[in-house]
Give the backbone structure.
Amino acid sequence: MSGPRPVKAPTGSKLTCANWQIEAPYRMLQNNLDPAVAERPDDLVVYGGTGRAARSWDAYDAMLRTMTALKPDETMLVQSGKPVGVFRTHEWAPRVLLANSNLVGDWATWDEFRRLEDLGLTMYGQMTAGSWIYIGTQGILQGTYECFAEIARRKFGNTLAGTITLTGGLGGMGGAQPLAITMNDGVALCVDVDAWRVNRRVETRYLDVVATSLGDAVAQCLAAKKERRRLSVGLVANAADVFPKLLAMGFPADIVTDQTSAHDPLSYVPNDVSEEAAKNLLATNPAEYIRRSRLAMAEQCAAMVGFMDAGAEVFDYGNSLRREAQLSGYDRAFDYPGFLPAYIRPQFCEGRGPFRWVALSGDPADIAATDAAALEEFPDDEGLAKWIHLAKERVAFQGLPARICWLGYGERHRLGLRFNEMVKKGQLKAPIVIGRDHLDSGSVASPYRETESMIDGSDAIADWPLLNALVNTASGATWVSIHHGGGVGIGRSIHAGMVAVADGTDLAAEKLARVLVTDPGMGVIRHADAGYDRAIEVADQRGVRLPMREAQA
Ligand code: NAD
């Protein structure tokens, strides 16, 4: 069967594939394309502009067929969303190895990428789209929640109550912003040009209300700020128009950021053409579309700098708005920092990052049981407890039930082994898939985001994510991927994905005990190597070996 169709991952404890190590990627590929999970499933687009799970429907069918027949000691190779080979490896090896969107340096441009994509030779894998561990907006919710909680701690007395955050973009990832802000008790004004996206966030309970006009949005936000009441307001409009208007009217934004699809000038919507004309331009004259889109980004970016000058906390939220604005000639684009160096890096020094898991049974009770296990395993972690309680109360599952929380080096393998025990003892109805975002402590090189402003200047060194993929492959991950261009766009990042399956077997326990150590361990050694004191301290305290320090001792 070829062509678009509604996709749903199988659930329950009955296997279609030879074992759970194969069944897991088989189900997770389908889960990524579940209409409840994916942004544009008919086009195989999961999130992030054009981040795909498979290159074509034929390739999708071939991957499922191949996994159905895969043996426990075989490995399927996937090149940018298309299965290209099956080899006999061994039981410890990953069952699937993926490489997405990778291009040689001089050719790593959007133009060349699109030429190859048009020829059907590659696809854009984003991060967890092409590596089959996207879990809907909840995936980004925890990271966004952590980020706003950190801003609250540093700048606003530990709460966002009585503050307004202005932001753009309510897509697959950006849609987490309103809920993350209200979970921190703040007010959010979220601008997105696409009414469908805005309404979808209300349906999934991430956004409270949709304003009828700019005036209505401002009035609602001001009233909520005054009463220190949490509220998220969506506004259907172009951010390049609205941000400057709000600045000009003296809108009292305390925090300003953006998560429109600014990583790709062909996804960002210009503000000086009608929707119809924009579509037409996209099809007939992409170069002109890009020019207009960059000009619009410069307008939005300049307004953000204006808010910064007026005293607001302003940061880039991991797209490429600053770079695209700079490309159109705006010279103050990099006056405000990226969120990574501003708020997250100290956590990366501890190997802390987005640990996520999915119940292959499809039964929410399995996630409830794992939530309880996580709380029991880390009884002193107040942040974790607050997050899990909020998530249980306010997060609607999309597709297979899943959970995410931030854990560091020394913690991830403990929870992974605990889940494996639970499966073994029959306390869960089926195995648990454990993975993470590529936005993690030791799995990405991205000079506009995760590795922006490293203290040793090593921002663009991409050996680290490659070593991450290699060591996770050697340690027993179930699937491993190497990607280029996710998050911030082609030519701007290289990153690796890792997924492991707790299937209750002794072999899985052996693998988890290694891979959930090596993976966050990469974050510790990467930051220790760069010279971060905290990472060196963590390495010393928790026994992460740093050969160059051993040589000095
Ligand atoms: P998406 O494509 O699902 O959504 C983008 C949204 O931007 C769409 O709803 C679109 O309508 C809107 N948009 C485009 N142009 C606009 C404009 N001019 N004005 C208002 N709205 C506009 O993308 P996504 O998955 O939500 O990701 C958004 C961006 O965030 C991407 O660039 C992605 O790479 C980046 N990202 C950041 C992080 C992070 O942790 N900070 C994580 C993942 C993704």
Q: What stands out?
A: Residues 506-530 form the longest helix (25 residues). The domain at 138-343 is CATH 3.40.50.10730 (Rossmann fold).
